[in-house]
UniProtKB/TrEMBL annotation:
This is Reverse transcriptase domain-containing protein. It comes from the Eukaryota. It comes from Araneus ventricosus.
């Protein structure tokens, strides 16, 4: 996918959806989440527990590598007080609060 042209977001989404649809049978739980959770080149989804998180990370990395993509920076929502950047917002994981800095 060529980045920087007007059609880049559309092309990226089309390529991702096509790749995931072709590999839907690898792990339907994970591919369904991936198909419904990308925003541009960011993946945001949630799971119920740590074992589902590990499964999501492992299968997602395998699936995306197969298509020539690389996933980075998986963040579990744990009770540890930590704020991270998420899609241009700040996410306080311990309180599950999204915020934005206004300047």
């Amino acid at each position: 996918v060529v980045f920087g042209v007007r059609s880049s977001p559309f092309l990226l989404e089309a390529v991702l959806k096509n790749h995931l649809a072709k590999n839907r049978d690898v792990d339907p739980f994970v591919t369904k989440r991936l198909l419904n959770s990308f925003y541009a080149d960011n993946l945001e989804t949630s799971v119920h527990n740590e074992s589902e998180f590990k499964r999501l990370i492992n299968v997602s990395n395998e699936l995306m590598k197969k298509g020539g993509f690389e996933l980075r920076d998986g963040e579990p929502s744990t009770p540890i007080s930590k704020t991270i950047d998420l899609l241009g917002l700040k996410w306080n994981k311990s309180e599950d609060i999204l915020s934005i800095n206004i300047k």
